[in-house]
């Protein structure tokens, strides 16, 4: 298998030095192009491909320092290795260039063995970086595919029940998320299943378990109609227990679990039967503020086999809002390292005209608050609003 020769750029205003260096490099099998000053060198670098630059320091118009500085400030050029070409009395200048980002330096007059060794070492590093970039791009593409697949696990459309509004949002901290939400009709009894969950850990592992938790919950709650008539409480307990035991018994060695709020809403009378498995307490809000905090009724799902989940009920009256969230919301940090906080989150709950505008406003608030800081956790929100005057 033949390999393409490396493309080198020699930048030196001294013709004799330039010719000697070109001759030596071509004997080593490299493809060489030359420039007589820094301006010409930058023009060539921006229009052609080079694997390495040999750059003289003392040149008219634009010296080696200026060329090196311009390269390191250019996103397209900063990764091209540069070897500084120096006189014996310019070693301190070469050290300065290395501090600026040069790969190495080469003293004049050129020693053929040293020339080959330093160019070979610099090119080996460059080829390794190139391979790393190709690998990283392939990983980015794989993660993008994963994100697209994962997005398919979220509901494309939320239920539309007369007299109700349902909205949800997920702001992922990474390419793939460990949070998820779900909302769908349980056709067997015309109730709406509501889910919001946060799988422990971050990244790809959490994302894979997110799909498993979501699929198990959906399947088990929808399969309950095959076992005869069951109450909402029985359906919830069955689905939570089966999901919990499967994760704990089959994947217990991974240590993965999820905090989950899991409920069945009767859109006729507003009754919400629910299990809060170790999740942040959802809130019920009316015109006077928070009227109820739906506390935990069991441990996180998947952590311990054969645990007992308790089902509770709450009534959502006309004009009231049910609001659930993952801990990424109150824990979001601004550039100063200060968390968004639960109180700030609660203060936003009355600033809305609909469930959708509420979440849109919150998303804007999070974007403004986090600003240039790194978002370290997924932020997922679920809002269900019972209209005061059903259409």
Describe what you observe in this structure:
It is a single chain. With 391 residues, the chain is of the alpha/beta class. The chain has two domains: 7-143, Rossmann fold; 152-386, PPM-type phosphatase domain (Phosphatase 2c, domain 1), CATH 3.60.40. The chain contains nine helices and 15 strands. The chain has helices at 15-27, 38-47, 64-73, 91-100, 112-151, 203-223, 232-250, 342-347, 355-370, and strands at residues 7-11, 31-35, 52-56, 82-86, 104-107, 164-171, 179-186, 191-199, 258-265, 271-277, 283-286, 289-293, 312-315, 321-325, 379-386. The strands form three sheets. A five-stranded parallel sheet has the order 2-1-3-4-5, sandwiched between helices. Strands 6-15-14-11-12 form a five-stranded antiparallel sheet, covered by helices on one side. A five-stranded antiparallel sheet has the order 7-8-9-10-13, covered by helices on one side. It is elongated. The termini are far apart. The mean pLDDT is 88.
Order of helices and strands: EHEHEHEHEHEEEHHEEEEEEHHE
Number of self-contained structural domains: 2
Number of helices: 9
- Under the CATH scheme, the architecture of the largest domain is 4-Layer Sandwich
Strand share of the residues?
15-25%
Query: pLDDT under 50 segments (min length 5)?
Result: none
Shape: elongated
Report the span from N to C terminus: 73 Å
Share of helical residues: 25-40%
Mean pLDDT level: 88
CATH H-level name of the largest domain... which superfamily?
A: PPM-type phosphatase domain
**Taking Cα atoms only, what radius of gyration do you get, to the nearest Å?**
31 Å
């Amino acid at each position: 298998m033949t390999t393409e020769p490396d493309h080198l750029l020699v930048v030196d205003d001294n013709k004799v030095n330039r010719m000697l260096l070109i001759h030596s490099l071509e004997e080593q099998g490299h493809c060489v192009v030359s420039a007589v000053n820094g301006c010409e060198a930058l023009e060539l670098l921006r229009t052609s491909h080079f694997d390495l630059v040999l750059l003289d320091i003392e040149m008219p118009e634009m010296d080696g320092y200026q060329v090196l500085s311009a390269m390191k400030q250019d996103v397209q050029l900063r990764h091209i290795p540069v070897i500084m070409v120096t006189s014996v009395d310019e070693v301190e200048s070469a050290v300065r260039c290395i501090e600026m980002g040069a790969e190495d330096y080469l003293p004049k007059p050129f020693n053929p063995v040293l020339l080959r060794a330093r160019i070979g070492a610099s090119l080996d590093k460059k080829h390794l970086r190139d391979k790393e970039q190709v690998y990283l791009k392939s990983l980015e593409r794989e993660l993008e595919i994963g994100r697209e697949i994962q997005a398919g696990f979220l509901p494309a459309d939320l239920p539309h029940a007369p007299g109700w509004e349902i909205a949800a949002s997920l702001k992922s901290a990474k390419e793939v998320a460990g949070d998820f939400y779900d909302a769908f009709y349980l056709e067997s009894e015309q109730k709406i299943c509501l889910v919001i969950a946060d799988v422990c850990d971050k990244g790809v592992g959490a994302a894979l378990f997110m799909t498993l938790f979501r699929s198990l919950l959906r399947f088990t709650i929808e399969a309950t109609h095959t076992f005869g008539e069951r109450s909402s409480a029985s359906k919830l307990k069955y689905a939570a227990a089966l999901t919990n035991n499967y994760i704990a018994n089959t994947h217990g060695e991974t240590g993965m679990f999820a905090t989950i709020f899991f409920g069945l809403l009767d859109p006729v009378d507003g009754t919400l039967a629910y299990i809060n498995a170790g999740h942040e307490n959802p809130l019920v809000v009316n015109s006077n503020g928070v009227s109820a905090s739906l506390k935990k009724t069991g441990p996180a799902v998947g952590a311990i086999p054969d645990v007992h989940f308790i089902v509770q009920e709450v009534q959502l009256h006309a004009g009231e809002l049910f609001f659930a969230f993952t801990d990424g919301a109150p824990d979001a940090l601004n550039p100063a390292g200060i968390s968004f906080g639960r109180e700030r989150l609660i203060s936003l709950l009355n600033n809305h005209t609909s469930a959708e505008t509420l979440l849109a406003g919150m998303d804007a608030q999070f974007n403004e608050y986090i600003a240039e800081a790194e978002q370290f956790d997924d932020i997922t929100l679920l809002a269900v609003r019972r209209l005061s005057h059903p259409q």
